[in-house]
Amino acid sequence: MSSARSKIVKPAGVEPDELELEVARNVYELEQNVPDLRADLRVLQIVAAKELDIGHNKRAVLIFVPVPLLKSLRRVQPRLVRELEKKLSDRHVVFVAQRRILRKPTRTSRVGQKRPRSRTLTSVHEKLLEDMCFPTEIVGKRTKVKVDGSRVTKVYLDRKDHTSLEYKLDTFSSVYRRLTGKDVVFEFPREGVYVGGQLD
C-alpha cells in the first residue's frame, strides 16, 4: 500500500479516503503491469477523488490531478480512463486539473501582483470543460438565455468521437454542474450544421 499511497498528494496531516486509496492502487497496478503506460504513470499523482451520483442509477468518479502533471496525464488519458472504468465497477471516470480561482481585486484589497488570467473564474471554468472532454475537441458553444433569466450553454463536441463518447455526455453535464453550478448540455452537431464557424 505504501507504493500506492505515493500516488496521492495531500497537505500535511490530511489522510486519503477509501476511494482515493482505491484509485491510487489501481493506477499503481496499471503502472506496474502495463509497460506502455509505465513511464507516464510513474510521475502521475492525484490530489483527490470524489464519487458523484449523476442520476439514472449511475455514478461517476471525479479525479483531480495537479496542473503540472496534466501533460503527462494527457499522453495516456484515453487508455487510463478505459482501464479505470473497468476496475471501478462500471462507474464513469472523469479527470480534471486542480485549479485555483483568485478573487477579483477590489479597491480595498491589497494585492502585490496582477491576477493572472488563468486564475479567473471564467478561465478556470473554460479549462474544466477542456479537461473533462479531452481528447475530444470542443468545436463550438452557444448560450441560451431563458425567459426567467437562467442560462443554458450547449457545448458541441467533434463528431468523430461520437461513438466512443456519447455514453458519457450526461456524466459531463452532471459533473460540470456540480463543480461550477452552471447548466451545460453536451452534444454532437448534426451533419451539415455550422458550429464555431465550420461546417460539420
Automatic annotation (TrEMBL):
Any GO BP annotation: translation
Ribonucleoprotein as UniProt keyword: yes
GO MF annotations in UniProt: structural constituent of ribosome
Keyword annotations from UniProtKB, A to Z: Ribonucleoprotein, Ribosomal protein
Protein name, per record: 40S ribosomal protein S7
InterPro entries listed in its UniProt record: Ribosomal_eS7
One term under GO cellular component: 90S preribosome
Similarity-based family: Belongs to the eukaryotic ribosomal protein eS7 family.
